[in-house]
Amino acid sequence: MGNSVLVVDDEEEIRAFLNKALSRMGGFQVELAESGEEALHKLEKEPFDLVLTDLKMPKMDGLQLIAAIAKSKPETLTIMMTGHGTIDSALEAMKLGASDYITKPLNLDEMILRLRKVLEEKQRFIKLKDFADQLERTNQELRKIDSMKSEFVSVASHELKTPLAAIKNAVQLILSGKTGGINEHQEKFLSMAERNINRLTNILNDLLNLSRIESGKVELKFKNIVLKQIIQLAASSLRPHADVKSIQIEVEIPEWLPAIYGDQDKIEQILTNLIGNAIKFTPDGGKILISVKPFSHDPNGGYGDMVAISVKDTGIGIPAEHLNAIFEKFHQVEGSLHRSVSGTGLGLAITKGLVEAHQGKILVESEVGKGSTFTFTLPLSKGERRDPHFRFILDKEFHQAQENNAPLTLFLIQVSDEGGELKEALFSKLEENVKQCLCRKADILLRREKEKILAALCEANLEGAQVIRRRIEEGIHKHPLEIGEAPALIKVGTATYPEEALSKAELFRLARERLGG
Amino acid sequence: MNSKKILIVDDEMDLVETVRFPLEMEGYHVLVSYNGEDALNQARKENPDLILLDLMLPKLDGYKVCRLLKFDDRYKHIPILMLTAKTQERDRALGMETGANEYITKPFEMEDLLKKVKAHLNK
After folding, report:
1. Which residues contact A262 (CB under 8 A, 6 or more apart)?
2. CA 20 to 30 Å from A234, out of A55, A316, A468, B57?
3. How does B7-16 read in b/e, with b if 16+ C-beta sit within 10 Å?
4. Which of A300, A279, A495 has the alpha carbon at shortest distance from A391?
5. Where do the DSSP E strands lie in A330-420?
6. Which one, of B75, B70, B18, B22, lies nearest residue B49 by Cα?
7. Residues in a beta bridge with A52
């Protein structure tokens, strides 16, 4: 069955012509109306797919009709027929909601083609909309099922814990000897039962944690925290386990590490999980290194708005084919050592969830037989990012540039009276190819735009610092820095210093370490 | 032998038995309630030296039992140790807010529980 078309024209001849042409040649179901009023009346009684209307009619004209249809029957398509020189009206009609316009004198083939095209488009639109609606419904259903799943896991875990508590108490009662003596075999097997009750409890707790993380119900208490303390805490709490296997735990934390913004307990949990895993999968006598570096997820960002924390071990490593799946729930990597290692299979899924709850990311690099490195990022405290007291812009490729013998300029924008002393400290060990510049004013810096800036050390509220900062933020530093042999030199990591943490002596020491080393 | 009175409140009878036994071995006099309402009545009538209180209870939940006792000058001195499967930080905070002296999550270590009971009774 053809689409239904309502033809509206005040001239009877045209109506008759269109009736014949559209029904015979186009295969449409045609209905006729001699005025806008009659058309609206007919539209009230039955729906039409399309209304083809003349512009100039007594009383209600084509534009008024199109506006009325757009308001009362928005699902009905409209096409305007206009004479020569009335292109403005045609455009007006489109603005009011018409799908197309046709100019007189009418070319029948063209008209039918246009009608069909408009109708097909409408069909496509309807199909797409149905599809989108269906997707939305499915999506809602899935979300509901997902939240039911989380709810189920949560309730089931609680329900399982109560009987588990009774079993545990009963076993511990017999083991304690309070119910009478037991023999060696009974003790062995009851201890086995107790160990597995504890394991089951750990799995239940991990499941609960994970379901809270997955349903977004994890409660994070964000505040500014000192990462150094947490890392040392986590490392020292696990040292006894490492000592048993003669594994060395080393911690490398830069002095200049700024405060980060996160939940102290959760970050400790992340670290404990990763260090605990490292101990588990590292053979006796191995080494674990925990290190921290400034980081930015934005590849063009000169500012480090994050820190990256790595836990590196000399363990058995993870086969490449397992690397992607390792953060999934209950994923097990088969391996000789793993058999003797017990876990809930949920630790890394929880770790990942906790990192992501901090807007961070986690990744793993590994080589079988050599070891694995887990690295996760955490945001710096907002205050540190926005308004640092000191900002040290460092060049990642400093050593590379030195190797290439590229001339570089180091800017030191100085405030204090100890300029000479600081300069001495900074430059004493620099290579010959690194030029030095000590300036007090921003305009000197501006005139030096053509030079490559290796690093700038300055107080954040200074004019010069603002110039550098603005250049980095606006991406302008690409201009002075990408010309020449060593491009993109200022793609740097940055570090911020909390005001209280940086004494002058410390600053000198840092400068020596960073630039002179 | 001491004859300190301990009230165990839990609707899980098996769990009650596994806690009652070692407490009686230690020489305590143990009373039991299987719901919140009975727990409140027994506490008021018997004036126990310590209460082990589950949170999810029929009739009156553990939070309410705890709050009602801790608001009453005659009973607020009784140490209340909450025993619950609820592990969330928020539940713990709520438990402590109602005036509980300890918040112990199930399953627990029997030795820990006995130590805590002893510590609160000797205060």
Report:
1. A220, A222, A223, A225, A358, A378, A379
2. A316
3. bbbbbbeebb
4. A495
5. 362-367, 371-379, 390-394, 408-413
6. B75
7. A7, A79
**Could you give the CA distance from residue A255 to residue A257 in angstroms, rounded to a whole number?**
6
For the stretch A358-405, pLDDT in tens is 888 999 999 998 999 999 998 877 654 433 322 333 333 344 444 454
Secondary structure of residue B52 in the 3-state scheme: strand
Residue A413 in contact with residue A456, Cβ under 8 Å? yes
CA distance A466 to A460: 7
Residues of A in contact with B85 (CB under 8 A): 158-159, 161-162, 165
Residues 6+ apart with CB under 8 A from A155: none
Mutate to test the interface with A, among B83, B84, B110, B112 (most CBs of A within 10 A): B110
Residue B121 CA to residue A384 CA, distance in Å, equals 50
Chain-centre distance for alpha carbon A176: 52
Whether chain B has a CB inside 8 Å of the CB on A197: the answer is yes
Taking each helix axis from N to C terminus, what angle separates A108-175 and A12-24, rounded to the nearest 10 degrees?
60
The Cβ of residue A282 has, within 10 Å, a number of other Cβ atoms equal to: 23
Positive or negative, the CA dihedral B29, B33, B39, B45 is negative
Kind and range of the H or E element at A79? strand A77-82
Smallest Cα distance from A380 to chain B, Å: 25
Q: Say how far apart CA A369 and CA A317 lie, in whole Å.
A: 5
Q: Under a CB-based contact definition with an 8 Å cutoff, are residues A79 and A50 in contact?
A: yes
Q: What is the pLDDT of residues B20-74, one digit of tens each?
A: 999 999 999 999 999 999 999 999 999 999 999 998 898 899 999 999 999 999 9
